[in-house]
Amino acid sequence: MTLIAPSILTTDFSKLSDTISMLQLSEADWIHLDIMDGVFVPNLTFGFPVIRAIRKHTTKPLDVHLMMVEPEKYFKEFREAGADILSVHVEVSPHLHRHLTTIKQLGMKAGAVLNPHTSLVNIENVLHQVDIILLMSVNPGFGGQVFIPQTIEKIRKLKKMLLESGSKALIEVDGGVGLDNAQSLIDAGVDILVVGNSIFSQSDPQLAIHQLKHSKR
Ligand code: DX5
Ligand code: ZN
Predict the structure, then answer these.
(1) Which of 55, 160, 188, 209 lies 20 to 30 Å (CA to CA) from residue 49?
(2) 135: confidence class by pLDDT, cuts 50, 70, 90
(3) Domain span including residue 129
(4) Number of domains in the chain
Protein backbone atom coordinates (compact mmCIF):
# COMPACT_ATOMS: atom_id res chain seq x y z
CA MET A 1 0.00 0.00 0.00
CA THR A 2 1.37 3.39 -0.97
CA LEU A 3 1.91 5.81 1.91
CA ILE A 4 0.68 9.40 1.60
CA ALA A 5 2.67 12.16 3.29
CA PRO A 6 0.94 15.54 2.94
CA SER A 7 3.33 18.51 2.93
CA ILE A 8 1.92 21.48 4.84
CA LEU A 9 4.32 23.96 3.21
CA THR A 10 1.70 25.98 1.34
CA THR A 11 -1.03 25.91 4.00
CA ASP A 12 -2.20 28.89 6.09
CA PHE A 13 0.08 28.76 9.15
CA SER A 14 -2.33 30.92 11.16
CA LYS A 15 -4.59 27.84 11.08
CA LEU A 16 -1.88 25.27 11.73
CA SER A 17 -3.67 23.43 14.54
CA ASP A 18 -6.79 23.04 12.34
CA THR A 19 -4.66 21.72 9.49
CA ILE A 20 -2.91 19.18 11.70
CA SER A 21 -6.17 18.09 13.36
CA MET A 22 -7.69 17.59 9.90
CA LEU A 23 -4.67 15.49 8.84
CA GLN A 24 -4.92 13.48 12.06
CA LEU A 25 -8.46 12.48 11.06
CA SER A 26 -7.53 11.84 7.43
CA GLU A 27 -6.03 8.79 5.74
CA ALA A 28 -2.62 10.49 5.62
CA ASP A 29 0.12 8.10 6.77
CA TRP A 30 2.81 10.64 7.64
CA ILE A 31 2.97 14.43 7.87
CA HIS A 32 5.79 15.89 5.77
CA LEU A 33 7.54 18.97 7.21
CA ASP A 34 9.86 21.04 5.01
CA ILE A 35 12.71 22.73 6.87
CA MET A 36 14.49 25.37 4.76
CA ASP A 37 17.46 27.46 5.82
CA GLY A 38 17.70 30.15 3.14
CA VAL A 39 21.21 28.86 2.27
CA PHE A 40 20.84 25.41 0.74
CA VAL A 41 17.55 26.53 -0.81
CA PRO A 42 16.32 30.05 -1.62
CA ASN A 43 13.56 30.05 0.98
CA LEU A 44 13.01 29.95 4.75
CA THR A 45 10.34 28.03 6.61
CA PHE A 46 10.20 27.01 10.26
CA GLY A 47 12.08 25.22 13.00
CA PHE A 48 11.81 23.52 16.39
CA PRO A 49 9.00 25.53 18.06
CA VAL A 50 6.67 24.85 15.14
CA ILE A 51 7.58 21.14 14.99
CA ARG A 52 6.94 20.89 18.75
CA ALA A 53 3.55 22.56 18.31
CA ILE A 54 2.62 20.18 15.48
CA ARG A 55 3.74 17.20 17.56
CA LYS A 56 1.15 18.10 20.20
CA HIS A 57 -1.71 17.82 17.69
CA THR A 58 -0.96 14.50 16.01
CA THR A 59 0.10 10.94 16.62
CA LYS A 60 1.07 10.45 12.96
CA PRO A 61 4.77 10.09 12.16
CA LEU A 62 6.46 13.41 11.38
CA ASP A 63 8.52 13.09 8.20
CA VAL A 64 11.05 15.91 8.45
CA HIS A 65 12.80 16.92 5.20
CA LEU A 66 15.89 18.99 5.96
CA MET A 67 16.79 21.47 3.22
CA MET A 68 19.67 23.00 5.13
CA VAL A 69 23.44 23.00 5.29
CA GLU A 70 25.14 21.21 8.21
CA PRO A 71 21.93 19.44 9.27
CA GLU A 72 23.99 17.15 11.56
CA LYS A 73 24.35 20.01 14.06
CA TYR A 74 20.67 19.65 14.93
CA PHE A 75 19.74 15.96 14.65
CA LYS A 76 19.20 15.62 18.40
CA GLU A 77 17.07 18.77 18.57
CA PHE A 78 14.88 17.55 15.71
CA ARG A 79 14.36 14.28 17.57
CA GLU A 80 13.47 16.10 20.78
CA ALA A 81 11.06 18.35 18.88
CA GLY A 82 9.17 15.27 17.66
CA ALA A 83 10.65 14.08 14.36
CA ASP A 84 10.18 10.38 13.55
CA ILE A 85 11.83 10.37 10.15
CA LEU A 86 14.76 12.66 9.36
CA SER A 87 15.99 13.05 5.79
CA VAL A 88 19.18 14.86 4.76
CA HIS A 89 20.23 15.95 1.29
CA VAL A 90 23.24 14.08 -0.07
CA GLU A 91 24.45 17.35 -1.67
CA VAL A 92 25.26 18.76 1.79
CA SER A 93 26.38 15.51 3.42
CA PRO A 94 30.02 14.57 2.74
CA HIS A 95 29.68 12.09 5.64
CA LEU A 96 26.35 10.60 4.64
CA HIS A 97 27.04 7.17 6.13
CA ARG A 98 27.87 8.73 9.49
CA HIS A 99 24.80 10.97 9.41
CA LEU A 100 22.42 8.11 8.59
CA THR A 101 23.92 6.07 11.41
CA THR A 102 23.54 8.94 13.90
CA ILE A 103 19.92 9.57 12.91
CA LYS A 104 19.10 5.89 13.51
CA GLN A 105 20.97 5.84 16.82
CA LEU A 106 18.74 8.72 17.92
CA GLY A 107 15.70 6.50 17.30
CA MET A 108 14.51 7.90 13.98
CA LYS A 109 14.23 6.47 10.48
CA ALA A 110 17.00 7.86 8.28
CA GLY A 111 16.41 9.25 4.81
CA ALA A 112 18.77 10.40 2.06
CA VAL A 113 17.43 13.01 -0.39
CA LEU A 114 18.61 13.55 -3.97
CA ASN A 115 18.00 16.71 -5.98
CA PRO A 116 16.74 16.19 -9.54
CA HIS A 117 20.25 16.50 -11.02
CA THR A 118 21.94 14.29 -8.41
CA SER A 119 22.92 10.81 -9.56
CA LEU A 120 21.84 7.60 -7.85
CA VAL A 121 25.55 6.72 -7.67
CA ASN A 122 25.66 8.92 -4.57
CA ILE A 123 23.62 6.48 -2.52
CA GLU A 124 24.72 3.13 -3.94
CA ASN A 125 27.13 2.55 -1.05
CA VAL A 126 24.57 3.25 1.69
CA LEU A 127 21.68 1.11 0.44
CA HIS A 128 21.85 -1.01 3.59
CA GLN A 129 22.11 1.94 5.99
CA VAL A 130 19.31 4.07 4.60
CA ASP A 131 15.62 3.55 5.48
CA ILE A 132 14.20 5.94 2.88
CA ILE A 133 15.51 7.37 -0.36
CA LEU A 134 13.70 10.59 -1.21
CA LEU A 135 13.88 11.62 -4.84
CA MET A 136 13.10 15.28 -5.48
CA SER A 137 10.87 15.67 -8.50
CA VAL A 138 11.19 19.48 -8.41
CA ASN A 139 14.10 21.67 -7.41
CA PRO A 140 13.58 22.09 -3.66
CA GLY A 141 12.55 25.40 -2.15
CA PHE A 142 8.90 25.92 -2.99
CA GLY A 143 5.57 24.14 -3.09
CA GLY A 144 3.32 24.09 -6.13
CA GLN A 145 6.02 23.51 -8.76
CA VAL A 146 5.72 21.39 -11.90
CA PHE A 147 6.77 17.71 -11.71
CA ILE A 148 9.99 16.89 -13.59
CA PRO A 149 9.06 13.89 -15.80
CA GLN A 150 12.59 12.37 -15.88
CA THR A 151 11.98 11.40 -12.24
CA ILE A 152 9.94 8.39 -13.39
CA GLU A 153 12.97 6.77 -15.04
CA LYS A 154 15.10 7.59 -11.98
CA ILE A 155 12.56 5.81 -9.77
CA ARG A 156 12.65 2.73 -12.03
CA LYS A 157 16.45 2.65 -11.86
CA LEU A 158 16.43 3.05 -8.09
CA LYS A 159 13.83 0.30 -7.67
CA LYS A 160 16.08 -2.02 -9.71
CA MET A 161 19.12 -1.06 -7.59
CA LEU A 162 17.19 -1.83 -4.41
CA LEU A 163 15.92 -5.19 -5.68
CA GLU A 164 19.38 -6.23 -6.90
CA SER A 165 21.07 -5.27 -3.66
CA GLY A 166 18.40 -6.72 -1.38
CA SER A 167 17.97 -3.35 0.34
CA LYS A 168 14.69 -2.80 2.19
CA ALA A 169 14.82 0.98 1.73
CA LEU A 170 11.58 2.70 0.72
CA ILE A 171 11.35 5.11 -2.20
CA GLU A 172 9.72 8.50 -1.54
CA VAL A 173 9.04 11.16 -4.16
CA ASP A 174 8.49 14.87 -3.47
CA GLY A 175 7.38 17.73 -5.68
CA GLY A 176 4.54 18.25 -8.15
CA VAL A 177 2.85 14.98 -7.20
CA GLY A 178 -0.92 14.64 -7.62
CA LEU A 179 -3.69 12.41 -8.91
CA ASP A 180 -2.51 12.99 -12.48
CA ASN A 181 0.86 11.29 -11.96
CA ALA A 182 0.40 9.18 -8.77
CA GLN A 183 -0.42 6.07 -10.77
CA SER A 184 2.72 6.19 -12.92
CA LEU A 185 4.87 6.90 -9.86
CA ILE A 186 3.43 3.88 -8.07
CA ASP A 187 3.93 1.74 -11.17
CA ALA A 188 7.57 2.86 -11.33
CA GLY A 189 8.13 1.69 -7.74
CA VAL A 190 7.37 4.55 -5.34
CA ASP A 191 6.35 3.64 -1.77
CA ILE A 192 5.65 7.11 -0.35
CA LEU A 193 4.07 10.07 -2.12
CA VAL A 194 4.70 13.55 -0.68
CA VAL A 195 1.88 15.81 -1.81
CA GLY A 196 1.38 19.49 -1.02
CA ASN A 197 -0.46 21.70 -3.45
CA SER A 198 -2.57 18.93 -5.00
CA ILE A 199 -4.10 18.24 -1.60
CA PHE A 200 -4.35 21.68 -0.07
CA SER A 201 -5.62 23.52 -3.15
CA GLN A 202 -8.74 21.33 -3.00
CA SER A 203 -11.87 22.38 -1.14
CA ASP A 204 -11.86 18.96 0.56
CA PRO A 205 -8.24 17.97 1.38
CA GLN A 206 -9.36 14.81 3.19
CA LEU A 207 -11.08 13.60 0.03
CA ALA A 208 -7.95 14.41 -2.01
CA ILE A 209 -5.89 12.30 0.42
CA HIS A 210 -8.45 9.48 0.17
CA GLN A 211 -8.31 9.57 -3.64
CA LEU A 212 -4.50 9.49 -3.64
CA LYS A 213 -4.44 6.69 -1.12
CA HIS A 214 -6.76 4.56 -3.22
CA SER A 215 -5.33 5.48 -6.62
CA LYS A 216 -4.15 1.88 -6.83
CA ARG A 217 -3.44 -1.24 -4.74
C1 DX5 B 1 9.70 21.40 -2.01
C2 DX5 B 1 9.25 20.61 -0.81
C3 DX5 B 1 8.03 19.81 -1.03
C4 DX5 B 1 6.81 20.60 -1.40
C5 DX5 B 1 5.87 19.70 -2.14
O6 DX5 B 1 10.95 21.96 -1.75
O7 DX5 B 1 10.28 19.72 -0.39
O8 DX5 B 1 7.76 18.96 0.08
O9 DX5 B 1 6.15 21.14 -0.29
O10 DX5 B 1 4.77 20.45 -2.51
P11 DX5 B 1 4.02 20.23 -3.88
O12 DX5 B 1 3.32 18.92 -3.81
O13 DX5 B 1 3.09 21.40 -3.93
O14 DX5 B 1 5.05 20.27 -4.99
ZN1 ZN C 1 9.73 18.10 1.06
Answers:
(1) 209
(2) very high
(3) 3-213
(4) 1
